[in-house]
Structures
1.
Amino acid sequence: MNISSGKAETLLLEVTINGQRLKDIVRADRLADGRLALPLDAWQEARLLPPSGVPLHLPDDRLGYILESVPGLTYKLDTGLMALTITAPPAAFGGSALDHGRGGEAPPNLSPPGLYLNYDANVIETNGRYNSYGAFVQGVAFNGWGSAVAGMIARGDRGHDEAIRAETYWQKDLPTPMETLVAGDTISSGGAWSRPARYAGIRWARDFTLKPGYITTPMPSLSGSAALPSTVDVLINNQRRSSESVAPGPFELTNVPVVTGAGEINLIVRDLLGRETVQSQSYYLSPRLLAAGLTDFSLEGGFLRLNYGVDSNDYGAGFAAGTWRHGLTDALTGEGRVELQGERQAAGVALTSLVGKLGAAYGAAAVANTSGAIGGCYLLGLERSSPRGGVSLQWEYFDHNFTQFAFLAGESHPRQNLSAGLGLPLFSRVSAGFNYTSQYTWEGDRFNLASANLGVTLPRSMFISAFASMSVCNGHAWSSGVSLVMPLGNRRTASAGTSRDTDRHTVNSVEVSQSPPVGPGLGWRLRGSDDRSQQGQGSLVWNTNVGSFTVDANEGNDSLALQLGASGSIGLLKGLPFATRNIGYGSFAVVKVGDLQDVPVYLSNQLVATTNGGGMALVPTLLPYQKNQLTIDPAELPFDIEVGGVKEMPLPYARSGVFVNFPVRRTRNALVVLLQPNGEPVPTGARVVVTPGERQFIVGKRGEVYLMDVGDANHLSVHWQKGACQLDLPLDPKGPSEPRIGPIICGEKP
């Protein structure tokens, strides 16, 4: 549709829509019939939805729409002020989407080649005589291709010593797709109906922990609308979780992070005029569910490992297995698993589903063929968790011919397992829990255990708890106990308790302890009881920068047992040998701050290390796959240091280290007096070129030249109108930062 320029009036207007003013002056057209048209660019800037129909061709050949074509829109035109004020309903605007995402960090920093050795050793003496020792040693070598891990257990007593290989494997983590590849000794997945087992082989699997904070469960989405620019507050169970700004119009908040279990979301929309609207929505979130479209898997194969910790190389039958889980919808997750062995094949499926907003139900069924004997297993379960308490119920049944994965000779065949649990707050400071477990085997063995616990929070953060349990296994056996815990401040805690075991033996005890600090320092524990075997106990923990050392003592049965222990790690990265507390499967960093000694290095604003004579320091206890804030304080650096940055955010792999190089360097200047070979000063205005760097400087009066940012070894080329010369200028690395040198003779240029 076209508008004749002779029948339209062009207006240059300042446009305000629902309280928001457009950035530029808008060229509008008032039609002969009085209707008002705005060009397409103004329409888009205001986020107004275009009306149905073909846009108009305005007199200047631009496209536009008529305001009167929008239902519910009103406007006021002030030709004196050349201002247009528009009021539009929320439905007239385009929608806004605010996606909170599922979390997770960026890809980690690649690890340079390095290695470290974890150790944890102890020796036990009884009445002053050596009794036994034990040690676990684990070596880790790493680079950008992954980590190679090998462990060994050594133990012995006065009559026997042995060394047993633990796990040996290579692992490569792929954080971007959240996948892990392992070759060597590892543990299989169990799925919903099977069970995990140790084996040597290959495993390729999804690993959501490679992106800490990544949320795998379905998260609710909320929608609403706002007529004016507004602030949206999200409250989860009356706790504020986020606050967002939204433009006028409909909006949708997706992937809202909530706590698991049942809860309620309140959406509070507050506009510029202070008016509030509240929307409420209940939800149920189960960690058993995967978000729609999300897949978890594990593919594994190799040889089952037998007698782990007893034999170094005892491997059994080969197998191949695969587990696949997928979020079919946000309310339904499916799983399938297949196990293949020479004499056994098994397959099964599992489903987890929401039951409205009440809870989650899950079930599984599998069948196994073992040398022609076919049997099945079945599983059903229900769970509900909420701020008002939680309940769970699970039932399993196994046919007589069903053989479990990694079944050992002489192992019992399970028949039926039943477990139930209930936890609920009784009052504001009182909570209670009840649990029941029942197990039966096809060999006739049975086990039943019922237990109850009660917890009460007292003033000054004191806590009292009580429990009672009854087991039924060829008779009834009761056990019970009461304990009181009282914080004393400064990491100290006192406790007292009494307990009665199934043999009707009552033990009363008191204990006071101080936990060790995160950094270097001491922790201790003292305990006394009327149990003859444990009449007096004491322990001391000494955390240092190079390791942790422990002393444990136990007096009872007219004997004194003493255990001495040490744990830590030693390693090498980027030429820095180090000793530190046990790294385990964590991460660490070697930090370099130029060549500066005694520079404090901070991790999350806590002092963790100081640099050595080469400007290097070890920072242990980094969090794998997360950003770790490392900083230095420029006020603690020498004044002649040029600082390019004081904060680094390394993101390391697990079982590895990273190298962090702070961009600092010592800047040295020098005032040099240059003489010609005849002893006269180099003429004023001569140019001095310093190599390396090819920087140029101008000679002043009396042959003086001020050289900036020079190194330890410098070559000077000097040029003036009637001559030239050159010389080498070495500087003492430990000399002053601004030396005065000369006068020195500049030799003739060859």
2.
Amino acid sequence: MKRELMLKKISREELWDIVIIGGGATGLGTTLDATSRGFKTLLLEQNDFAKGTSSRSTKLVHGGVRYLQQGDVSLVFEALKERGLMFRNAPHLVRNQSFVIPIYDWWGGPFYTVGLKVYDFMAGKLGLGPSKYISKKETIKALPNVERKGLKAGMIYHDGQFDDARMAMSLAQTCVDYGGTVINYMKVTKITKEKDIVSGVVAIDQENHQKHTIKAKVVVNATGVFADEIKKMDDPATKEMIVPSIGVHLVIDKDFLPGNHAVMVPQTSDDRVLFAVPWYNKVILGTTDSLVDLPSLEPRASEKDIDFILETAGQYLVKQPTRKDILSVFAGLRPLAMPEKEEKATKEISRHHKVMISVSGLITIIGGKWTTYRKMAEDIIDNAIMIGELPERKCITHHLLIHGYNINTDANSNPMSVYGLDQAKVLNIEEESEKFKGYLSESLQIRKAQVIWAVREEMGRTVEDVLARRTRALFLDARESLRVAPETAKLMAEEFGYGEDWVKNQIVQYSELAKGYLI
């Protein structure tokens, strides 16, 4: 997957069947659906793949126990089916994660037992394991750091856990495997029209500032929280339809949650759900659900949200995390569809997706979540076939294996399992030169060869691309990522053939960015 080759394909192609704006989960999934049906498809991303929301999730592939509580049965059914398909199609990226709900009220036992049995039943053959009621003693054994005072029992249930940015990268590679064209740092600046009907886009290459006029039978707006901006390119008078809400996450050391189980707190002081999830030998605490005024590529956590997470987690853990224990803080924006009733709280807004078609033929997708990316993509392309008068071709992504597919892998003991069958190719880079051997960061288990692979095969263009998304250093330990940034920049510069000025500039840019992930 090389950017130079993608640019050549863009220059050669006179008319695309489908152009997709947005390189997050939805855009990549939509591109894969379209390319696997045999359509000439181009994806344009203004920054890097999964730069926004799609790399900033709670790292869960789940049906949504909370949505079941809210009575949104159809969403839970859909999400549980899609969770099972993700697990089957990408076992190197999605793993079975057991969750424990500590119970402190006697009524909680029967309530969760019944609710989670319904959750299991709805998953059917695609279930990841049965839920079960466990005693106080068993709960403490599963969660050694759980608060004992008032503890009555616990419930264990199963959901999926994954690396969101690595999943996005594998989707991009799968798109290319099927003949699709995907490119990052290509910003759409205009929607073009012929006789008032959308006919393509104008995009500017953010690296060389070259303008590209691209023609297409169908244009899809899959830009998440930025969907309103693209809609206004089509119709300046269009009403805003996105309500961005921010989800904040804190990363702490694994010592706070020893063992392999995650914790789910089903009802916090303000009726949210809080998770503590093991991830790459660290623990993610989150999340929040607060309204924000404007979308941003780098949303920042408020002091209030940080304190809320720490305070709530501290109520359930004997060893309580404090601000000094935070290794990284990151936030993502959810592209929620604006509710009919303005007074609705963000946590009550439906996570269902909506596909909308403007009078000019622009297709826009809003809402949804990572787990249902495949179904969202299927719905979009079914509509695109109609709008673009494309040949009728059925969706085949139900059983389409994601790039690197490898069933013989163990994410718990092997941090490089996310590369799947490409792992051997990554490690083979170490044989090329002594400077490629060994760890970039031993504490995070990131190898120098991964940097080279990111440049050669994954369209990594900046130090941020490599340390934030090709590897997860920034999200796991911001200070450690700052320590390895200079060496990362030097490795990349040598691979690109860039000089010392590029190295210095990248270190400055990355250092400024990483400050936002530190307390």
3.
Amino acid sequence: MTQVPPEVSGPAATHIRSTTSTNRRGFRPELQGLRALAVLLVVVYHVWFNRVSGGVDVFFLISGFLITGQLLRAAQRGPIPFRANWGRQIARLFPAAMVVLLATAIGGMFLLPEARWLQTVRELVASVFFLENWRLAADAVDYAAQHNTASVVQHFWSLSIQVQFYIVWPLLVALVALVARDARDRLRAYLTLTLVGVFLASLSFSVSLTITDQPFAYFHSLTRAWEFALGGLLALGIDYIVLSRRARVWLGWIGMTGLLSCGMLLQVDRIFPGYAALWPTVSAGLVILAGVTGSRVGVDRFLSTRAMSYLGDISYALYLWHWPVLLFVLTVGRQESVGPAEGAGIIAFSLVLAALTHHLVEEPIRREARGVRGQYRLGAVSMAVVLLVAGSWQFTAAQRANQQAAMGVYDHPGALARLEGFQYQGRADVQPLPPMVTVSEDWAEMEQPDCARPARFPALEVCTQHVEEPSKRILLVGDSHVQQYVAALRPIAAERNWELIGILRGACPFSAVSEVVPEDQECLGWNAAAVEEIAELRPDAVLTLATRDVRAGQTEQTPPGFVQQWWRMNELGIPVLAVRDNPRFDYSPPDCLQQHGRGAPECGVERDAVYAPVAPFEQIPDVPPNVAFLDFTDSLCDERFCPAEIGNVLVYMDHNHLTATYMASMAPIVEQGIDTALGW
């Protein structure tokens, strides 16, 4: 997960009330230095440590601190000029953002693997409209999207929240001013009470959602609102806090220590936002409270240097550039991380791009974009240019996908190529299916399913592919690996008049315990509800996983929780078809094939590295009599190797899911396995 850019504000934005004892309005150079420090933490942690530093919270706090004070003063003078306010934000935010998005889109067409094109285009469009955080939040709860490789525009999630804040905050202050119109002298008190309410409500929601669904909470706008509110409360109350110079020196260094240590001591990307985000926000607040101490040993002496001030000026552009530069280097270099020297080069190059963007794009456009109409016109034109390039990229991807998909199935035997005696007589130059540009979306789906949520179990979705007077009713239950077997069962069901029923949930195998996330109460409840629903539906057979966690090192296992569920099915008199799972990788095989070429051995895995000669379920002493095991390892591997492509069909869509196309090619093999196992 990436962090937030600094607010796009020059030195003029730091003219607020001082925290000196005289409480005079003055220039706050340490705010530029604080912004510079935060962006340095973001960049260094991303490039060298592959971690998140907590800078997101610092910049949200600074934004709330600055804009709340500005809006309060504007409301005290009269009605808030919304159009002019938003126009200034457009002139400050859009130029650099759209230039980086445009360059990233063009670079992505040439440097990114085709399997990542469509997802990147979607995120480009979301970033243009500053909705990237919601795009990623949706992906966080959509298990089918969680395996996307980090996109080159993922860092726009935080800027999206900033822009949403800039839209909503003036409206909130204006509403408070309207309520306080007959008591204008109490506007500050009314606004303080309002922000206290926002702070408490948002923090409570943030803590709750972080506990139940942290990935979703991380990108949610409302889980971050309290950080803006905290900055606003600081702006409203700072004039009334009078501290000695010595106290402010101590506060400054305590805050600095907190900021520097946060990313080292906390797993920010796994436990934030929640209450843990109070660490960096309170630390940044202490630095702001310290203010300009005038002391030789004050933290403001370091933050106010010319170098830090300039870095603060270009910090927005630096944040925007460093992430795509890093991702492109990793992609082209086919590597997971960079070393010290390479990382220094990435940072240096990003600094150069940031300086050029600041001096050649941001500053000239801000000077020229005068008047509200000109500012809005600037925003519309810059957005249109990026959307045009994104649309062209998507059109190119669609053309490639259609061209490859038009090839006949005769050239793509897939799993049938594994059968004894198979002889391929098609063309040697045929491209594999599914097309690289759509492989990451090759999910298996039922044909026109009827999906419903039982009233007693609203979290459970039951989808049925109905047929009239079915000869058999097959129910698939478990996680997304089970879902892919829909592709193999569909042609069988069509030919033999079977009815398919799916009770599926990503990252939640059919087990009596939570296998993926320890003590995941939602998964536990879902599994309990699934058992009751199966008892009511009474299918002819249940298909689910027999093993999980097939990785290098022979980590494959049949968890006791699986066996417990099989016994429950046995008590119901329902046969169980337990399928041995497929391998998982530390990389994306489709990306590997595109980078190294078709047939590259590094894109597959040695069979004996992931599969033991004896399957783990064969060593279980208490297997219930209703269970029949299906082992399709020979369809995924030969005697020694499990490749990424078989019979001109890509086997994997990402690092652990089989493609629906390959599963469809396994239909005759799966049909024979079921008939043998159940005597049908």
4.
Amino acid sequence: MFDFVRKHTKVMQFMLFLLIVPSFVLFGLQGYNRYKEKGEPVARVDGQDILQGDWDDAHKREIERFRQSMPTVDPKLLDSPEARYATLERIVRDRVLLAASMQSKLVTGDTQLARELQNNQAIAALRGPDGKLDMERYRQLVGAQGMTPEMFENQVRNDLSTRQVLAGVGGTSFGTAAVASTALNAFFEKRDVQVAMFAAPAFASKVNPADADLEAFYKQNAAMFQAPEEASIDYVVLDLDTVMKGITIGESDLKTYYEQNAKRLGAQEERRASHILIAAPKSAAAAERDKARAKAQELLAAVKKAPDSFAELAKKNSQDPGSAANGGDLDFFARGAMTKPFEDAAFALQKGEVSNVVESEFGYHIIRVTDIKLPKQRSFEEMKPELEVELKKQQAQRKFAEAADVFNNGVYEQADSLKPIADKLKLELRSASNVSRTPTPGAKGPLANPKFLTALFSPDSVEKKRNTEAVETAPNQLVSGRIARYTPARTLPFAEVKDKVRERYVATRGAELARKEGIAKLAAWKANAAAAELPAAVTVSREEAQKHPPGLVEAALRADPATLPAFVGVDLGAQGYAVVKVDKVLPRQPSTPDLAKQEVQQYARAWGAAENMAYYNMLKDRFKTQIKVAKPAAQASDSAVARP
């Protein structure tokens, strides 16, 4: 074989050329690095991996959607470990439901897709008076989400198909009044209890450890007294602000931009309106919505009969708690501040005019426009500073992509220093000390970003002192860092932490003594209830805990009502121990007919959600679902809730 290769070198070179070059032509160099660039698998569903890059991209889209829906809120609020993990769970949920829909052959036809797109308010706004869709604006709309129209429509198809997976479970759920009442009465009932607390701090004075005790405790619990690993680092940040500093806008360009965009950039027209709302959420039954619509029609007839009575009718009948007391007045608002059906109706009216009944997701509105504030066109000189900022931002957005490529390549190609890329892009070379794997209290920017810190403490960075890859820590922000000095985690000397050891020892032994005393009292009082030394009774419930720990209240409410009065012991961990005497059950006050009806509906929805969750968990097992990333400790509840 090797003789053949040596004798036919040119033939082998030609064969390799035929095999390798077409694949580069078809897929490009990036295709070979795509898997690596996407990172390691973070989850697996039905044999398919979800990669780190998929997770990062999805979370970036989540932040962008959040930013668009709530422009005034800092999107960095969503960049916490808990928020990122919730995004991963949503990806997993979508993959599980998609796998289930494919297995069950649940498909979405063209007619159903068209109906869904027609009901999409954002797309409906792109239709002209003739009903024809403005395709260019449609492409821009979906392009802002990083998709083509075909990709968007395929996503909608998948969403509709996956909805069918859970619709057969949650959609058939129901709750009778008797069942709902039994469950709710048990959940909201109250109990009279007497509580004897054996608090750990009260026993601390009885703990007098010798040095030998402290040293033994120190050796048994060495992990409590460790100094975490830390590093001194250098890092550079590439963001839009950095790119903007190098951009200069000419006067002529500013004037041209002003002439082309003056109307758009000027102040917005504002309307002042009052409304009467008859509440009827989309989730309400059809009969309820019909009743609400009829009520709104009656009020509209009254308004048209006596227009000056609008404020009085709003005070008496509007179900909007924020405006009813003010005669329905909503003050001035511009476009984008109200739900779209309401906004369209308000901006179609003249001053003093009253709308017909307008349906929104909140119910039925009657709208009266009371004032119109027309915008005043500002001069070029007035708008010049903000025009310059906007143009710089636009150019920076375009140049950022080029700079990002240079940044990515630079930190990789010269991996032993950040100075070359800092000099090339005119970036500030920053430094920080006492950096650890988890963000320290008060840390900001990249030093508070878990993704950057993970890259910084990777084996390649720690052992070889190489630059990290370019890490996206926020929209339009890339960071790379390198470790200048690394100190591994170590157990601190006993002499250095002796006071802390004593504090931990006393707290631990105090809790043990409290528990021992509480258990002894519980046994004695069960044997002789008359000897129990207890404070006056208080009434507790899940809604009114009377400052008692949740575990204590839960234990009291779970005591068998057939055996009352009864003693219950509750281990409160580091807080100590409690003995609870449950004296009697106080039945829940009966609800009004209207409230009872709402409670049955809420119970049915909650039961449906529980059935959906149980079915979803079964699907996760069926499709061998794994999440390979640890859930953040601060996140106590499971956020992967299956929604219909």
